[in-house]
């Protein structure tokens, strides 16, 4: 998975949306203490930056050294490069001891993981019984009827053959992803709970966002340019004269609580 984002790490850091404060406030309200977070698959640290405002310390890990190069340095965030799969010994050495973490977060990355192995590690590091795991994905941005029409055509027809099969979990808004945790306090299910993040973009930003997709890089490696001149021209006509537009990304959150085991 990490190799899918090496070549477009800068585009990822520049163009991927941040997440709304309401999302983090909701998650934080479900963790009794706010001492330590493990942000897994942190990429270039989009979620870690917001978590660092609420929690005393954040351990932000990723299997891609290249993406970590673009993460913002913060005094209470420790960035850690990890192998794609860690042993329990490596988990303790690189992340944290057993039962020490208040919250595990995974932003736009859970669909890439070996879930049985990862969930075993999550249950090992989380505090019992109130440690929380929160995983979310965002889906296709909505900009305007004209832009959305061009974008949806590109996504559903041209790009689809180049997505990894794991992308289907994102297309399903994490509804079908395995998530063996109990509902958090105040909830009767583990989600998905829906939020929205808004990002101001010009057309260049929007095209850079598309170039940050793993499918875009996979297509390029196969000699296919998904953003050819004809496609870019369609986007220019749809975008119109407005320099900037608001792109709304729906976010789907799965959140659960660890139990004594």
Automatic annotation (TrEMBL):
InterPro entries: Methyltransf_11, SAM-dependent_MTases_sf
SUPFAM superfamilies per record: S-adenosyl-L-methionine-dependent methyltransferases
Domain Methyltransferase type span(s) in chain numbering: 39-133
Superkingdom of this protein's organism: Eukaryota
UniProt protein name: Methyltransferase type 11 domain-containing protein
Organism: Flemingia macrophylla
